[in-house]
Amino acid sequence: MASSMYLDNVSQQGQAGGFPSGTPDSLQLLNGGAVPLQAVPQLSFSHFSHWLVNTVRNGGRVISFFALPASCFTPSEKDGEHTHRLIAILASDTSGKLHAATAGVSGRYTSFAKHTPQMHLFEREIYEKHGITPEGHPWLKPVRFEKTGGPEIGDTDFFHIYGDDIHEVSVGPIHAGVIECGHFRFQCLGEKVLHLEISLGYHHRGMESLLRNGPYPRTLALMETIAGDSTIAHTWAYCTNMEALADAAPSPRGQLVRALALELERLANHTGDMGALAGDIGFLPTLSYCGRLRGDWLNMSAMICGSRFGRGLLVPGGVLHDLNHSLVLRLKERMTLTGKDVMGALKLMWDSSSVAARLSAVGSVSVETALRLGMVGVAARASGLKRDARHSLPLPDLPTPPDLCVASAGDVYSRAKVRHDEIAASVAFCQRLLTDFLDEDGEDAVCAESPAIPTLMPEYLAVSLVEGWRGEVCHVGITDDSGRLAAYTIADPSFHNWMGLAMALRGQQISDFPLCNKSFNLSYCGHDL
Amino acid sequence: MLDILFERFRQKHRTVPFPADSPTLPPRFRGRPFIDAGLCTGAQGRDCDLCRLACPIGAIECDNGSPTLDMGVCTFCGACAGSCPTQALVFTTDWRLASTERHALLIRPSEYMPGEAQNVSQSLPLRQERFFQLPELPLTPTRAASGAFTLSFRLRQVTAAGCGACEADLNVLGTVVFDLSRFGIDFVASPRHADAMALTGPVPHNMQKALFKCHNAMASPKVVIAVGACAISGGIFRALPSGDSGQGTEGALAHLPVDLYVPGCPPHPYTTLDGLLRFTGRAVPPA
Predict the structure, then answer these.
(1) A181 vs B45: which has the higher pLDDT
(2) Taking residues A327-353, what's their average pLDDT?
(3) Model confidence at A11, in pLDDT bands (50, 70, 90)?
(4) Under an 8 A CB cutoff, do A202 and B207 touch?
């Protein structure tokens, strides 16, 4: 109850004191749009700082914050002395607008993290990549251990709590299951976790450096593997940026196929997560059904494009596989059967009072914490934040999205409930979409030519947000004077949410970790890039 | 309790009858590639390297025009087949891709053998539907199979920085659909309990130390199974000669002896299951 009152308060603030349109301190842009780089206001650092802090205070949030060598910009008269430019892109969920601004820095700047905690990991990232120090950062250390010649992975100043009865539990990088790698350190007093530190970087493949000076022939394949379970979300964000930077609108029918594929990805992963949650608490019927049903959703993706993970479907301009009449009918039939089976499997779980008791009041994240950390996606909505890019920051020309699903308690139960509700909403959406496909002509039309490398406008900036199943995927592309990618930055939802998991564990039993972890189900490779 | 039984009655027993019955994969599934020597202009000595140019990750090389497609690198995106002017290069729906021989993953132009077994992938615009008889790829059962691994084969999975898709489709083998444990094959938590390492990912710098530690902790005899293009060759992350900057990650082979290769990006669960069963000496009838 208290959290929803708080939310109303936040949204009112956002409307009243959010982004007045046309403010000189930032450039307004839309999701999926491109703007000339020179149009982004170049502010003094104090002006930039004032703009950023105030905007976040008034309900905005940071979706991207990175640095570029100053040589990428035409220097303004008073700005010739700086080595780098910081670029921040903020989003307002109430106005549906994005805002961008930059400021010149040389070697150091005053950290935002202390008062605007959602900046903490962005600042560490810039520090690791460019050696620019955020002065006053509370815990400055590598994010991905990506520097050759820098500290080896695992060699860092871990957080310690000292005391006679304190013990430390160290887990990973290789975990007990079939799962990605990461290192966890629990500071415990008896069974109680005082703090969990999550140290990642084991999956660092150098993704952003592989993209620089592109796009290359293999760029699209790289996008499909930023996080394998979010292939459609990341590839869609990339394709949107390419379309914006090439000033070429995507095929309208292709957008619909993309929207369908994105929801299939959501259905597969949410179903798998519900099964895994049931498995973690030993409720085996739901585990068994969902394990199978997750595969049924994946197989529907394979019916569309041949790949269970949506590989080879999206290309700049549209999609490579269209839906013909008989395929739409088969998908509709499968959708009905699988949707019914998933709901049947989940009902068993919700009807069991011992399941509800085990999931409730475990791993809670308050709405205040979610807001301060800039959390996104399922985890943010479970804590009561109405954050869903499909609703607040939609890409242009898409049909009405699935219903927004929110909970309030921010515990494991809420994160499970949001997933359950989103499964129902996605199934309804897909049925609607497939019915529309039946009414349309255009059978077996290939919506785009084979994946040619688009020619991009020089010195432009494009931003795309796609609400994947885990949360919002944010890609920012910047071209140089020859139309190559001077920088391409990626923020997987996991980037924002890993700290949320750490906060969820505070004061919990260490035995609750698997359950909390599964309820977030964050991506290691999406974070590590 | 009654609800649970009722739901079980409604949803029924769903384990696939594999290997007794062969699965039918979606017609758009891109499985084992085939290059028809009779149609390939490059193989006939004429000037053509369109498939090589179309491949975004350099999985095809041309020697005097004759193409060689490396399934150990290939992501099965289908771009090469789309570019082939004579439709000599096609992706069939054959999911049996695993082999114990690295060189067997190299697909060269060969004679077309008509057969009812495999239908070419329908994802490509075809002039006519063709059916293929593809020879089985060589797969020698592990030498320990005569004793140790036939009835019980324990896998320690290590994700050496994959994207998570290979892991997801390995995990799926444990579900009721495939029910891997009915074959005596299981994923285990400790390398001490493992007979084999199922390795995924391109093995970049940050994962090498952990990988070696894990491999060293396994008792002999032990085998390494490279699952997916990244583990086999570095896949899309390997360095390319074309000037496109690469990290130079080369997959498992640069670090460990590999006993079984399971190509794909990611491999279909049936591809992996077929490989595991034949590797441990069980008969899998051809599709």
Answers:
(1) A181
(2) 94
(3) very low
(4) yes
Q: What is the ipTM of this complex?
A: 0.91
Beta bridge partners of B91: B33
CA distance linking residue A213 with residue A207, whole number of Å = 12
Query: Angle, to 10 degrees, between the axis of helix A412-439 and the axis of helix A325-350?
Result: 160
CATH superfamily, region A2-135: NADH:ubiquinone oxidoreductase Nqo5 subunit (3.30.460.80)
Options 3.10.129.10, 2.40.10.10, 3.40.50.12280, 2.60.40.1500; CATH of B143-279: 3.40.50.12280
d(CA B176, CA B214): 29
Measured between CB atoms, which of B54, B164, B174 is closest to A227? B164
Q: What does CATH list as the number for A207-528?
A: 1.10.645.10
Closest CB from A173, A204, A309 relative to B266 = A309
Between A23-32, A196-205, B94-103, the lowest mean confidence (pLDDT) is in: A23-32
Q: What is the pLDDT of residues A441-453, one digit of tens each?
A: 654 445 555 556 7
Mean pLDDT across A294-302: 95
Domain positions in chain A are 2-135, 207-528
User: Terminus-to-terminus CA distance in chain A, angstroms?
Assistant: 39
- Residue intervals in chain B for CATH 3.40.50.12280: 143-279
**SS3 state at A219:** helix
Which residues in chain B have their CB less than 8 angstroms from residue A218's CB? 56-57, 236, 240, 244
